[in-house]
Design goal:
Two copies of one chain form a homodimer. Chain A has 413 residues and is of the alpha+beta class. Helix content of chain A is 39%, strand content 21%. Chain A has two domains: 212 residues, Enterococcus faecalis V583 fold; 173 residues, Alpha-Beta Complex (v583 fold). The first copy, chain A, has 14 helices and 16 strands. Chains A and B meet through helix 7 and helix 8 of A and helix 7 and helix 8 of B.
Chain lengths: 413, 413
């Protein structure tokens, strides 16, 4: 039982994975196992009964968008009857930020890991304010989703096709040299993404006005690349999953109620524990009292060695998540303590181009008593409201302890 | 004679200047004092006889572009006859990178300082490789200039008009939080510029194909915003110029032969000394032996408190100009020693959002024996070749000594 060798292989696979954005398609047609009565959501499995406010709000919004219900009460009834089923995005090679809802009629980015061949998926980013992923489902939210599907998605699909594929690992490496950490701060990455797509959008759009609308929407959304980035991280960690004897974490995800992790050498089981409430900065008029528990698949970024782990690349982020630039450096330095290696392609200029801490080792987390640092948005605890802030959070130690115990049992060590 | 008060006023005017890009027009129609037999160039005044290789190459290219000559010998004859005259960009409210050639038929960005009302101008950026500003003038160079004039400029002019004005000070402030220093590294700024213009270009271009061509050209050129940035800096320092009793440097510029400075309280006279050759990294196949002397108006960026003075914002720049990320921090810290103040709007995340060193004080330069640090591209010393590298350079101390002496004489102190 050579755990070191297994972890070397898992992290090697994670780093060498090269996820390329190759297309955009309807979830119903391209996501494996997607079906008309299925909704995908962030985090480990959850029922309506145990779902948080923003998760219930987003489920309601997705069913309104699909034309299946008229309000939250109908949504609840439909889900509790079993006529609509809920499954984690992660069970379908997908990831979604915050509530992470992907319904059959939504378009998803399609990424292919060109080193190992696996695919991954994520939905389109809606921008800011009242948005489905934070549990809002007003007419404003739904009409933006409809515009995204009817106007933006066809143009993006053609533009991505015309691009011949966009290497998201290369884009991320560049963005980390421009003050992004790839999770809460995707300003440079979104500009790079918009820059690559702009001439293609101008070329393929049905008119100059539509091209302008799509480019304005992408360019003005500093998170427009977040979803392809998350899917890219999913493709990377999936490549690292399933290595016999490896203690490397291959998924971290939250549904607003439970935090869940998976471990490379421990198959598809989830290790879960109740989520914490993030610490952070609140929008005017909101306080920690309003915050939902930690939610979203976006912790896939930290799992792949960016986000909270690459804070040192993004000193300006402290204006958004609180703290001082030195805290950002310290956050990255702390994460080296619990990671197996340093990334070959993601490097940090202020640390002399040192690679980001990559491959969370469950053993180190438990031994050192250091949990991963995670950047995150903060949703309102009630359905229908939306984002109230952004900040930092730690996953519960209990999951890592459970996983280590399971590893000892599984491998008899 | 309250020098401190004068310097406070000069730097206050420099920082409060708010240059907005308001249009694009032909130099002949919009640059004050432009005429058909005039070429503008970088740096202090120069004759053909004393001009460096890249300056001669760029003059030849500009005259070829104007259809006035057939080769370098004809260009020389025309300039030496006095039928074509050479004057500094700075004598016409303009600036140009490297050789800085602006000929009557070239389009220029028009900026207006919306605080104090003065205007400034700069030409379009050509991108990389064989380009006029580095002294190249092959058919490849000329055909790109023609495409820029015939295809790109009309679209950009309409797009800028449709934008209602682009606040370049705000753009720069944001770019400094994304790893730019605004002189050699304008990657984030160029993406922000492209992002703002993209929907407008898509809207106003005569076809999707032309929009795509223009957007590809802007997006793929990480210096596309350099020229508007330089013009913005020119508008800022011009606002600081002419304050009675001020020892603040209001222009630093090089023509490849001489470095020249102007001082706020000393009117329009130039203080000059021979240029140095930059230290830096050379492209494959070239060495310091191939380098021209320091050239270009782009030192207007350092004069306004960015560029080499904001190196601490741009740790990744060391891969381009040589050194370690700590050298970038040290460069900025050293410049605080010779500056009057710290910028109100340009701040540096890794230094806890401290303002950039702003307003070079001739007295401090001479007293402390510290000359400004300048980032720069490096041109080949021969006409017709182009860029061979990028690096760092210091202006000659002699100019600052001359200026201080002149100040003492002028004001009797």
């Amino acid at each position: 039982m050579d755990i070191e060798k297994a972890n070397a292989e898992a992290t090697e696979r994670m780093m060498e994975a090269r996820p390329v954005l190759i297309g955009l398609g309807k979830a119903r047609e391209v996501v494996p196992g997607m079906r008309d009565n299925l909704l995908l959501h962030a985090g480990p499995p959850i029922s309506w009964a145990r779902a948080s406010g923003p998760m219930r709000g987003a489920i309601t919004g997705a069913l309104l968008f699909e034309g299946r219900v008229k309000d939250e009460a109908e949504a609840r009834a439909l889900v509790e009857s079993g006529d609509i089923q809920l499954e984690p995005c992660h069970h379908h090679d997908a990831v979604g930020p915050m509530a992470g809802l992907i319904s059959p009629s939504m378009s998803v980015y399609i990424l292919e890991n060109q080193t190992h061949g696996n695919k991954s998926f994520s939905n389109l980013n809606e921008g800011y304010g009242k948005v489905l992923r934070y549990g809002a489902y007003s007419e404003e939210v739904l009409s933006r989703l409809r515009w995204m599907e009817d106007v933006m998605a066809p143009v993006l699909a053609d533009a991505i096709k015309a691009s011949g594929g966009i290497d998201i690992r290369a884009l991320l490496a560049e963005a980390l040299h421009m003050g992004d950490e790839g999770h809460n701060r995707n300003k440079a990455g979104s500009l790079l993404f918009t820059k690559i797509l702009a001439p293609l959008v101008a070329q393929v759009a049905p008119s100059g006005s539509v091209a302008a609308e799509v480019l304005r929407s992408m360019g003005d959304n500093a998170l427009s690349v977040l979803n392809p980035v998350m899917a890219a991280c999913k493709a990377m960690v999936d490549a690292a999953h399933g290595v016999e004897g490896s203690t490397i974490v291959s998924v971290m995800a939250r549904n607003g109620t439970d935090f869940g992790i998976r471990v490379s050498g421990l198959g598809d089981r989830w290790f879960t524990a109740p989520v914490a409430v993030p610490d952070g900065l609140y929008f005017p008029g909101f306080t920690a009292e309003d915050a939902s528990g930690d939610i979203g698949d976006s912790t896939i970024t930290e799992t792949a060695g960016i986000g909270g782990f690459a804070m040192a690349s993004a000193p300006a982020i402290v204006t958004f998540v609180s703290g001082k630039p030195q805290d950002a450096i310290d956050a990255t330095l702390e994460m080296y303590e619990i990671c197996y290696t340093e990334h070959r392609f993601f490097t940090i200029p202020p640390l002399d181009f040192r690679g980001t801490p990559t491959g969370i080792d469950v053993r180190k987390v438990v031994e050192k008593g250091i949990t991963p640092r995670v950047n995150t948005g903060i949703a309102h605890k009630n359905a229908g409201v939306g984002q109230v802030g952004a900040g930092l959070v730690r996953p519960p130690m209990a999951m890592f302890e459970q996983a280590l115990l399971a590893f000892a049992e599984e491998y008899g060590v």
